[in-house]
Amino acid sequence: MKNTTLLLVSIIILFIIGGIFFVKTGNGNKNSNTLTGNVVVNGGGGGNVVNGGGGGSGGGIGKATGEEVQKVVLGMKNYNYYPSEVKVKAGTPVSISLEDSVFGCLRALSIRELGVGKYLRTASDTLDFLPTQKGVFKISCTMGMGYGKLIVE
Ligand SMILES: [Cu+2]
C-alpha cells in the first residue's frame, strides 16, 4: 500500500514538473511571438513615418523609402529649366535639385500653384514636397522667369 502511495506521489510530482515545463515552454513561445509581432509592427510604422532611427531592420525600410522619393534634377537651357517637362506621380514625395550649371535667379526655384519654392544654393540643396493634386504646374524662378513644366499624374 505504501509503495502504491509513493508511486502515485511520484507520478503526481512528475506531472507537476512536466506541467511546469509545459507552461514554461508555452510562455517561451508566447514571448517570441510577441517579439516578432513587435518587430513587424515597428517595421510597418517605420515605413510610414520618416525616421532615421530604425535600428537594424531600419536599413531596409530606409532603402524602401528612398526608392519612393521621386528625384528630379533640373539643368538649364536658354535661360529655361531643362528638361522643360518633368513627370511625377501624385502621392509620392518629390525632391527637386538643380545642376551647378543653373545660375542667376533660376536657382530660386518656385512652383507657385503648389505653393512651394526654395532657393537652391548648391546642387545638393533640394526642394522637397508631396504632390497631392494631379495637373500641370509651371516651374519658374520666384520672379516668374525661366520656364519648366511639372506634370503630376
Ligand atoms: Cu527671376
Structure in words:
There is one protein chain. The protein has helices spanning 2-48, 58-68; strands at 70-77, 80-82, 85-88, 94-98, 108-111, 116-119, 127-129, 135-141, 148-152. It is an alpha+beta fold and 153 residues long. It folds into two domains: 2-65, no CATH class; 69-152, Cupredoxins -  blue copper proteins (Immunoglobulin-like). A five-stranded mixed β-sheet has the order 3-9-8-5-6, with no helix packed on it. A hairpin with a 4-residue loop joins strand 5 (108-111) and strand 6. The longest helix has 47 residues, at 2-48. The protein is globular, with a radius of gyration of 31 Å. The chain starts with a helix and ends with a strand. The structure holds copper (II) ion (CU). Copper (II) ion (CU) is lined by residues 105, 141, 143, 145.
Indicate the CATH class of the largest domain: Mainly Beta
How many individual domains?
A: 2
CATH topology of the largest domain: Immunoglobulin-like
Percent of residues in β-strands? 25-35%
Low-pLDDT residue spans: 5-64
Spatially, the strands of the biggest sheet line up as 3-9-8-5-6
Task: Sum up the overall morphology in one term.
Answer: globular
Task: Please trace the helix and strand order, writing H or E for each element.
Answer: HHEEEEEEEEE
State the major sheet: 5 strands, mixed
Each distinct ligand: copper (II) ion
Number of strands: 9
Q: What is the level-2 CATH architecture name of the largest domain?
A: Sandwich
Structure classification = alpha+beta
Number of helical segments?
Answer: 2
CATH superfamily of the largest domain: Cupredoxins -  blue copper proteins
Q: How much helicity do the residues have? A: 25-40%
Mean pLDDT: 71
Gyration radius (Cα, Å) is: 31 Å
